[in-house]
Design brief:
By secondary structure, the chain is mainly alpha-helical. The protein has helices at 5-31, 36-57, 59-66, 69-95, 100-107, 110-121, 128-150, 159-181, 189-208, 220-246, 250-256, 260-272, 278-295.
Length: 300
């Protein structure tokens, strides 16, 4: 069977998108024993430097945002809830020993929480299948947490560490619902990413004032983690996302995001040797099944 050019491009884009979208959790593992918040500060610093020439060339787009309070407010809220708080909890949880695949799984429950809260706050109706999916997704996640507590080589992690990715997920959910309420606000991607990165850079710089400094700023490992997060996890992921959305693949792109947890688990196993116990594997399958039930829409 010979694939057409369009099919081959779709496969390459889809594969690249899933890998790039999953790479952020691996970036948290790359940080190792270093200060994750200073690495994140450098991540957004690099993105600001890269995007600066672009926004200068198209400065009209940037100026139109800076003079519009609604757009500035929109970017600030989505940055602080959809990125800053989300990343703080994700990176801190992984640094404290929670497996990257489990963090990715809990983060993947975001559409479940969004569907539930949208029904309550935005009056969007949920059908019976979606309510069942919500219950299954929650049950599967609890199964993972219980399994990780029961079987962890005799050293179970405190329950509050599992709450960190839940806070990340809820933070991203709040950002998503806010965007749904302000869907009429349209902003070009380059200035949006530039201002978001600038806000995050400033926010992480404040945290860094109260943190222990990196021992060696010139270390290859530090800068490899920074460049991995900036180029692959941010510019690569959002760039591929923009391309796929331009090709009219909204539903397909949304479904690909839910390949993030298993991809992260495979990455973490091959690169860092992180293994899942039987409870975590079964729970992950159950939870992802529930997520699919919530987001799936039958074609008309």
């Amino acid at each position: 069977m010979i694939l057409s050019k369009a099919s081959l491009i779709n496969i390459l884009l889809s594969t690249g998108f899933v890998l790039a979208w999953s790479s952020g959790f691996i970036g948290a593992l790359l940080v190792g024993d270093n200060n994750p918040f200073q690495i994140l500060f450098l991540r957004f610093f690099v993105i600001v430097v890269i995007l600066l020439p672009v926004v200068i060339i198209f400065k009209k787009n940037l100026l139109s945002i800076l003079v519009d309070f609604k757009k500035i407010k929109f970017i600030a809220i989505t940055s602080l809830f959809g990125q800053f708080l989300y990343l703080v909890c994700v990176f801190y949880a992984i640094k404290l020993g929670l497996q990257a695949g489990i963090v990715a799984l809990i983060a993947a429950l975001q559409p479940v929480a969004t569907a539930l809260l949208s029904g309550m706050l935005l009056k969007e109706q949920l059908i019976l299948r979606q309510w069942i999916g919500l219950g299954i997704g929650l049950f599967g996640t609890c199964f993972v947490i219980i399994g990780g507590t029961l079987i962890n080589e005799g050293y179970p992690l405190p329950l509050w560490i599992y709450l960190l990715p839940f806070i990340s997920m809820l933070s991203l959910t709040a950002s998503t619902i806010y965007q749904k309420k302000n869907v009429k606000i349209e902003i070009k991607l380059p200035p949006l990413m530039f201002i978001q990165s600038l806000i995050n850079m400033i926010a992480f710089s404040v945290i860094c004032l109260f943190q222990t400094r990196l021992y060696d700023w010139s270390s290859f490992d530090n800068w490899f983690a920074v460049l991995w997060l900036a180029l692959f996890s941010t510019l690569g992921a959002y760039g591929l996302l923009a391309i796929m959305l331009r090709r009219g693949e909204l539903n397909k792109t949304a479904s690909l995001i839910y390949l993030e947890p298993p991809t992260t688990m495979i990455f973490a196993y091959l690169w860092f040797g992180q293994q899942l116990n039987i409870y975590e594997i079964i729970g992950s399958i159950i939870a992802l099944s529930g997520v699919i039930m919530v987001i799936y829409r039958r074609s008309r």
